[in-house]
Amino acid sequence: MGGCEFKFRGSSDDSQMTLQNFELISVVGQGGFGKVYKARLNKTRNIVVALKVMSKVKVIQKKSVSSVMNELQILSTLRHEFIINIISAFQDRCSLYLAMDFLAGGDLRFHLCKYRKFSEAITQHIVICIIIGLDYIHSNGIIHRDIKPENLVFDSQGYLRITDFGIARIWKPQNSHETSGTPGYMAPEVMCRQNHGVAVDYFALGIIMHECILGKRPYNGKSRQEIRDQIIAKQAAIADVPQGWSTAAIAFANALMQRKPQLRLGCNGPDEVKSHPWFKDIKWADYEKKLITSPFIPDGKLENYLKSNQLDSLEDQSILHSEQVQQQFLGYENLPQLNGQPACISSIVSPRTPNLRIQLKKEQ
């Protein structure tokens, strides 16, 4: 398992981290709670980071305190080359700040909108990156539950990383109440409020692959209910092999999109996914070390539709005067550690192992 040897906010030489340590360069994204900035960490050898700035007012208004706290707790246990990694976390009276790896290649949604579809070689590369990231996440006892193009970001070398762990969860057998996600990518068992496991992330991968092949999702609708009705009404499948594609690729996509999780490829873990005939010539170890040249290199001149590098104008922040409200964010800057070392969650998660006990253990 990947190591977790890196500094957390709260360690002795990082305890005074504030917004003043960063120079905001440009806006690279915008979400429901605020913006993500390309920023320079002046204190540490001019390292360029992605700085996620979240308004506490918006977080409270959207009833998402548990989500932002959960993302920090989850990310604090993980570190890997195929996911986004945190560098520091801190807060002030008005905002939460999360400094992460800066990835210069733009998200997969941006490139799908630009190119609409991808070749088999590029799609296979995208899928392999996601599988490696999911393998690591799942082996640490976590299901992501929001795999979608917006949460998959390219680095400058054309390798994808998984981001946004806001609704990720440590797996537990009874989780039918956990129904958050993005309609169109949500597995049927989540939409139908059933217990679910790692197979939900592989279902989302199948939907993404459908988009890369045909330029559209198999299930569309104006509401979650419309999409749910479509999923119940029909099994998504790519019936004909498009020109330039192999039968193995199409079979792989169809196997991921199976509605019943027990029939879905990936239900039994990553080994059955990696051993699919579509990957017979893939050297997984070389891929994990990023020794394979990506067939897709993002344009270095990504158009940024958000020009300002200024922080958002202030909202009505009167609710933040309450100490009870501020207590909800207590510990945001103090990530969980065991004996002075980051905690790593170690486990293999499978929906077929309902008695699985997920344990925290110190990384050796």
From TrEMBL:
One of its GO terms (biological process) is intracellular signal transduction. Coiled coil: none annotated. GO terms for molecular function: ATP binding; protein serine/threonine kinase activity. Residues 280-344 form the AGC-kinase C-terminal domain. Residues 22-279 form the Protein kinase domain. Its EC number is 2.7.11.1. ATP binds at residue 52. It comes from the Eukaryota. SMART domains: S_TKc. Keywords: ATP-binding, Kinase, Nucleotide-binding, Serine/threonine-protein kinase, Transferase. Belongs to the protein kinase superfamily. This is non-specific serine/threonine protein kinase.
